[in-house]
Write a structure and sequence with these properties.
Blueprint: E1 9-12, H1 21-30, E2 34-37, H2 50-53, E3 57-59, H3 68-86
Parallel strand pairs: 1-2, 2-3
Length: 95
């Protein structure tokens, strides 16, 4: 992160531990760097986490995958699993 240029934006919606949050806070203090974070190394994020109060950081509560399409797809898969169960068919992704 020390090589990030002024005005750079880093986005993490994958895995919290991919990003060194301490280094991110440091580079934000030193430069005009921005971040958008949906995941964190420890979740839920503590109420007084410096990530919540740092300038140039936008946080969301692990909702990047929560889209209308994902909810529709989940509903379709659940309905199909119920139909398959009562029809005596194998349930995909069943446990």
């Amino acid at each position: 992160m020390s090589m990030m240029r002024n005005g750079a934006l880093i986005i993490n919606a994958a895995r919290g531990k991919l990003l060194d949050e301490g280094a991110l806070l440091q580079v934000i203090e030193e430069r005009n760097v921005f971040a958008a974070l949906d995941v964190f190394s420890s979740e839920p994020l503590a109420q007084f986490s410096p990530l919540l109060h740092a300038k140039n950081i936008i946080t969301t509560p692990h909702i990047a995958a929560a889209t209308v399409e994902s909810y529709q797809q989940t509903g379709t898969h659940v309905a199909q699993s119920i139909i398959d169960y009562f029809a005596g068919r194998e349930i995909k992704n069943g446990l």
